[in-house]
Fold these 3 entries.
Entry 1:
Amino acid sequence: MEKTIAAAYENAPKTWVYKLLLVFGVAAMLIWSSSTIVINDTTGSGLSVAKNILSGIFHPDTKLLFNFTNSGVLYLLLETLCIAFLGTIVGAVISVPLSFISASNLMPRPIALVGRLAIAAIRTVPAFIYGLMFIRVTGPGPFAGLLTMSLCSIGMVSKMFIESIEDLDKRILESLDAAGCTTFQKIRYGILPQLFPDFMSTLIYRFDMNLRDATVLGLVGAGGIGAPLIFAMSSYRWNEVGSILLGLIVLVMIIEWISAKIRTKLTRG
């Protein structure tokens, strides 16, 4: 047995030459690409800004951090969280029928193709552009952020839903059909148990993304904590910047912990 394994190793193709050439090729491209990088003097304002931001995080403005009015960090974080959560829910509600229409194993190919083209068209536009468009329609505020998050969620969530629908085990449905189950019973006991874990996992992942995107959308006036953050940075109020960033870090960590618990529950059943 040992001789057979040794002979197999000896007869195996010698690929170390190709791997070595690949490493040299990648190194050469990295060296060539680095020749276009221009590094400015980091001892000037850039380094001082970074030091001020770090100093602001470690010395946050406690009055702003524990301010319970509409201009406080807690209220703005709650607004950002609500924009992300409601945007995910609205996008998921619209994505469910759109996904079933676009699934090639359930619908005729022309109808599925039209649905996929619509989803692809939605996904091509960045969230920042959607935010600017909805601000023109509804005016600045959280509602514009909600509409933006909903529309952006449709593109990704629908795509993931379609993959889950097309991976359905049809043998379960055939068994239920042979047992004389009604259409509702087949959906209840054959389709939903297969799709629910994948759908929930997709929604949790999309909610994490929307929470970060909602922060960025605040920069264009779509509600949330982004606008106060950019205003504080523009005015060099680094303690306020530190308060906002500290609140964001804590919020993201809490959401990550809750998401991990839910994913573990879905995995283990």
Entry 2:
Amino acid sequence: MSQFDSTWSFVDEGNDTPNGFLFAGISAGLKASKKKDLALILAPEGSIFSGMFTQSIVRASCIDICEERIKKSSGLLRAILINSGQANACTGNLGLQHFQIATAKIAEILGIKEEEVLMCSTGVIGVPIKISHLVKNLPNLVSDLKLNNFQNAAEAILTTDLTLKKVLIETCIQGRRIKIAGFAKGSGMIYPNMATMLAFLTCDVGIEKEVWDKMISIAVKKSFNAISVDGETSTNDSFVGINAGNKIEKRFLPIIQKGLDIVCQNLAKNIARDGEGANCLLEVLVQGAKNNDDAIIVAKSICNSALVKTAIHGCDPNWGRIISAAGNSGVEFNLNHVDLYIGSDQILKKGKLIKYDSKKVTDYIKSKMKGRYLLDDIVQIIINLNSGESNGTAWGCDLSKRYIEINSEYTT
């Protein structure tokens, strides 16, 4: 067996997290419920942080400060404080003050510099953090820091999520055990170019900042930037990847990249799967594109189409909506070259409708509606443009009446 035949495997237990990283998650009374709402990640000294944030020009002050602190420190940071319940966005100077109060206090307790702390928030826009509750509970949060509190931290960042989103994988390279762990939140306001999501990844391999930035960018492009629930981009979208530990030879970096891709895609798909009111995961695979960017653009256009989403919810094999969404993507292709499949059933061949059993396709979609969280809930659409050699995948979900109910009553 070649030394490059290293494969990643999923680890079920959250106790065996990447070496040197500590996690915490507690209830600080930030939410109306007694659920966990305050999390902390403490990274080893010398860790490298890389962040990708919302592209919206309406953004929480914490986003700007996080970007600034990462840039000024060249990624040499130590901790991330995360609160859920209040987005602390569109709160003016008060939001900025709350960020500074919180990061200064947690830095003091941890014995590190304030500039070494990032803060991410999620929740209702326009509502400031319950800062007195947060500050009062910071000593309890630090006391909760443990290797085995990965799940507690993952729970503490959730808002309207129905399920926990966490993943831990491991591999062995030249006798060395390597782990990558990630957790995320996200259920609504999900759209490519980040979404109303928070996601955090830790890896116990030391990788220099410039290389790490590129690796994180690649992983995010193929995962969190390739999902859609409702076409909305939020004010607080944040993804932070952290590495720490002994370095490995550069020739093994492709293995680490594969691991980053696995973790990010797993979390991204679970965000789409948990879309507000969703019943299934929609997976669109575009083949035969001129380049990978074109493939992902077409796939995202289909996933983001409200008409496609509602057709899937109604188990309606309305293939015209799929082709229309592809045509509106801005990518040039020739319809006379296109093959289209829903599940295993081919609908178009070289742009022409062929005889297919519409009831069979309907039954296929219905069967996936019943398989949510059983890993048998994926409605797959395959479209081959037959204009190149590149492929791309995006993920979404159906759009249901329940989505309207959840979001029309979000603050009431």
Entry 3:
Amino acid sequence: MDGAGTTLLDAVRRRLAQSGAEPTPARVAAALRAQGRLLGDAEVLGAAEELRTELVGTGPLEALLADDRVTDVLVAAPDRVWVDRGSGLELTRVVFPDAASVRRLAQRLAAAAGRRLDDARPWVDARLPDGTRMHAVLPPVAVGSACLSLRVVRPKAFSLAELAAAGTLPPGGEQILRVLVRARLSFLISGGTGTGKTTLLSTLLGLVGKRERIVLAEDSAELRPDHPHVVRLETRPANQEGAGEVTLKDLVRQALRMRPDRLVVGEVRGAEVTDLLAALNTGHEGGCGTVHANAAADVPARLEALGTAAGLDRAALHSQLAAAVSVVIHLVRDRTGRRRLAEVCVLERDAEGLVVPVPALRWAPDGFVRESGCARLTALIGGAS
């Protein structure tokens, strides 16, 4: 659109914003007439659609978010919009008119999530009404332009067969995971950001017996297991007066009173680690969650750091971890950006009493390769196979 057209749309945008009216074609035509411009039907419909996506939808990002393959949409600048379709980041042809347009979209999405985003509070982490996870940072904290990150939450979990077809699981990997869930082993899924931890956890929870009750505690409700009996709990930030906060630690404690057959923490990243380990040590078999870690070998150190911050000393943390969690499933992204299950480890205690992950199965193109911990994993699974 040329400069005159952009100025015209700005005037119409202000008029509609002041009236609070939905930008229907009829209202856009009336607003255009009020500016002294007569346009044809096609021009009016085009202007109405552009304004609707900006004022109601997700603007230029709408087509990207509608793509079933897209998991992440990242806006770094008006002309730098990236997507992840499962094979790494790709630069798109989507372009915003200017930095102000990116800022307006970020602020409107934050408002839709009931959150504040302005110069006084220049960043926000929230969940949109459709479940999309949103993070935004405004200038001057973000240099040059507002930065917007959207993580798409699909309404239905992938099946194990779909993950295998996508290359996330090696041949034969489906059966191993089915048996692991059936055996009610407590496990953690580890990996870096964007490796597919939540996706895999949703899939595995769909394998839980239909008569079992799953209680989810999440910072942001992203898990979508295909299961008939799921109770979902989500944290809540404090309001502008600093009151009303509900933490993940609060949710874990409440979940224990809800008779869970499977207690699930979407992401273990704070003081809730102490309550989760305590719960898994008191008869709650089959509990699980995700944790950020660069390698499976780093998981105990990561949990140790979280436990120490929560007041749990190192020896106590390792004692509880050894009794509470049996298996670590580690995910990575390879050099092509493709997600895959790198290894399955069992947790054992060394001579000093510290928990160490021992590799049991390692990913290979033609199937899992057995490692030193495989015998231990087989013993844990027992008759579940």
